[in-house]
Amino acid sequence: MVKAPFPGRARGDTDAGCEFRSARPRSGDRFRGGSGTLAERRRCRRGRVLASVLLALALPGVAAEGFDEAAEIEPFVQHLVSRHPVDAERARSLLRRAVVEQRVLDAITRPAEAKPWRDYRPIFLRPERAERGVGFWREHRADLERAERQFGVPPRIVVAIIGVETLYGSRTGSLRVLDSLATLAFRYPRRSAFFSSELEHFLLLVQEEGLDPLSVKGSYAGAMGIPQFISSSYRNFAIDFDGDARRDLVASVGDAIGSVARYLERHGWRRGDAVAFPASVAPGALPELLEAGMKPHTALAALDGVRVGAEGSAFADRPAALIELQGAEGVEHWVVLDNFYAITRYNHSKLYAMAVHQLAEWILRDFEGGSG
Questions:
Q1: Second label for 278, Cα 20 to 30 Å away, from 40, 79, 187, 368?
Q2: Averaged pLDDT for residues 315-341
């Protein structure tokens, strides 16, 4: 949404009815150092604000920009109703109320994941985030342990993901999801197909869950709630983990915990396995291993020219891959296993997965250090 500033005054302008007298003030009825009585100043200020607002509303181009009915809304609605039992006029009416969010288009072109690891790491690896993670773990210990029993994902990982995503539910986003998804579906050609699909999922989600589509808020990419699930993930992986017969990722920490654990389990999390190990690599082995990508492809013991510490010996037969990060003290190499790759299914970035892994280890150390 493009917001116009209130029109300012040129130097020397006066406001009608606001030419303050220079008469000597009575004690107590004027602002210190200014002219005019307190009541006059207040009336003047209210008048200026009201006039500015009215003028802004009257200016052409100030109103929030909507989407083109024929070129954008109607083709989407026709596609939607051809695939799902959705009322076309209701869908049309809703999309007519969506607005273009320039903030979304600006944000998606400069994601944090485009930074090098040395700049990305300090965003999430902070003492206060680890400390709050320990507190979150202690407060929700029963749900976290139940999620581990059911899905095999340890508490530290679930806590770290929620910590990275929303600082434990305290920062869940301020943009209307409808506006974000419509903006990216209709005005961001590079990923229009993906976000059109997410917009479709969102309209189905609000219908299925009884949500108000005009009040649901989230990130610039349309992620929602405590764990920041996108609409398709909400529909496919969110669960009722607190037993109230609702899947509520906005207000229920229990549902968020269970849903994160289930999501990772469905995306290949291996119970009891490690996530990643720092590695030393023979220079000649680097190009081929790095080109193979971060999806584990070769048994750890068979990665030629790669060495890890003793902690990796228990996982010698596990599929592994090698990644490279640009750290604060130079290049870092890490051997990553299936569990690292599972975290990247939550956010397709090796930086994100490494931040989750390292924050999880930090939280675990502090949690155990404090005897839980």
A1: 368
A2: 97
Alpha-helical runs (H) found in the chain: 38-58, 74-83, 88-96, 102-108, 117-124, 127-139, 141-151, 155-166, 177-187, 192-209, 231-237, 253-266, 286-291, 338-344, 350-369
Domains of the chain: total: 1
Q: Report the DSSP beta bridge partners of residue 359.
A: none
Return d(Cα 138, Cα 326) in angstroms, integer: 34
| Cβ-contact 368, 156 below 8 angstroms | no
Specify if 101 maps to a domain. yes
Least Cα distance to 101 among 59, 56, 53, 67 occurs for 67
Model confidence at 370, pLDDT cuts 50, 70, 90, reads confident
Reported as a single tens digit per residue, the pLDDT across 164-178 is: 999 999 999 999 999
pLDDT digits (tens, 9 = 90+) for 215-249: 999 999 999 999 999 999 999 999 999 999 999 99
Terminal Cα-to-Cα distance of the chain (whole angstroms)? 46
- pLDDT of 64 reads 79
Q: Is residue 344 part of a domain?
A: no
Please write the tens of the pLDDT for every residue from 61-80. 446 799 999 999 999 999 99
Domain membership flag for residue 34? no
pTM confidence score: 0.82
Annotate 280-302 with DSSP letters as a single string: EE-GGGHHHHHHT-SS--EEGGG
Is the CB of residue 22 less than 8 Å from the CB of residue 35?
yes
Does residue 13 carry a pLDDT above 60?
no
C-beta of residue 150 within 8 angstroms of C-beta of residue 261:
yes
Q: Is 165 a catalytic residue?
A: yes
Catalytic residue among 165, 198, 200, 265: 165
pLDDT tens by residue, 142-151: 999 999 999 9
Cα separation, 246 vs 238, whole angstroms:
10
Q: Are 157 and 360 in contact (CB under 8 A)?
A: yes
d(CA 364, CA 163): 13
Looking at 310-349, which runs of residues are DSSP E strands?
319-327, 330-336
Q: Which residue has the tokens 């604060």?
A: 328
Q: Where in the sequence is the domain holding 183, given as residue range(s)?
A: 71-107+169-237
